[in-house]
């Protein structure tokens, strides 16, 4: 099983999701996305694997989102993914990707990750 978690260690939901993965015997690749933001192509792929539009991966309550003066049209997935590459704080977290099954979930609630690990 090849699992990647786009993780923010300061986020309780992200920490709980990581804990659930580890309890299931999974040692994921951890990407601290605030330090190493996913590129636009990765964000578009993750949205597709989750089954949502890129706009659905926005943390709309973040000040950086609400105060953005360079926000592209929310219906333009490519432009929005490129914007998120420059503003990773606005990406919903955590995103967990199973590369082997080409599936992904958002760990909100953290228990969503259990569908990827067969629990």
Report on the structure:
- Helix 2 (about 40-50) crosses helix 4.
- About 30% of the residues lie in helices and about 15% in strands.
- The chain is globular.
- Strand 3 (about 95-100) and strand 4 form a beta hairpin.
- The protein has a single domain, classed as 3-Layer(aba) Sandwich (Glutaredoxin), CATH 3.40.30.10.
- The longest helix has 12 residues, at about 10-25.
- The protein has about 120 residues and is α+β, with helices and mostly antiparallel strands.
- Strands 2-1-3-4 form a four-stranded mixed beta sheet, sandwiched between helices.
- The protein is built from four helices and four strands, in the order E-H-E-H-H-H-E-E.
What percentage of amino acids are in beta strands?
5-15%
Assign the CATH superfamily: Glutaredoxin
Task: Find the CATH topology.
Answer: Glutaredoxin
Annotation, overall tally of beta strands: 4
Distance between the termini: 14 Å
Q: What gross morphology would you assign?
A: globular
Q: Could you give a short account of the major beta sheet? A: 4 strands, mixed
> What's the gyration radius in Å?
14 Å
In percent, how helical is the residue content?
A: 25-40%
CATH architecture, by name, is 3-Layer(aba) Sandwich
The chain-level structural class is alpha+beta
What's the average pLDDT? Answer: 96
